[in-house]
Design a protein that fits this description.
Strand content: 5-15%
Helix content: 40-55%
Keywords: Transferase
Number of strands: 2
Shape: rod-shaped
Oligomer: single chain
Distance between the termini: 70 Å
Order of helices and strands: HEE
Protein name: Peptidoglycan glycosyltransferase
Number of helices: 1
GO molecular function: transferase activity
Largest sheet: 2 strands, antiparallel
Strand order of the largest sheet: 1-2
Length: about 80
């Protein structure tokens, strides 16, 4: 009988310790749901980052900025494995 009483008390203490963590998880899930529902259905299509060029008064390039030389190309100009 003593074993059953100790087991019941241990179960109650264990449940009491678990309840706050369930509450915190519930609050976190509700916050994540609010953030997800606030997202737009469609994302804005922004232009791709390309290299910026500085031109002189005559239109000749004197400098370029950006460490990658990116240029936007149509999909049919991209090789099949890269698509």
């Amino acid at each position: 009988m003593q074993f059953i009483a100790v087991s019941v008390v241990a179960g109650i203490v264990g449940a009491g310790l678990a309840i706050p963590s369930v509450g915190v998880a519930s609050i976190g899930a509700n916050n994540a749901l609010k953030i997800f529902n606030a997202l737009p259905a469609e994302l804005d299509e922004r232009p791709l980052a390309e290299q910026s060029r500085m031109l002189d008064a005559d239109g000749k390039q004197i400098a370029s900025f950006y460490w990658l030389n990116r240029k936007e190309v149509p999909l049919d100009k991209i090789s099949e494995p890269m698509q």
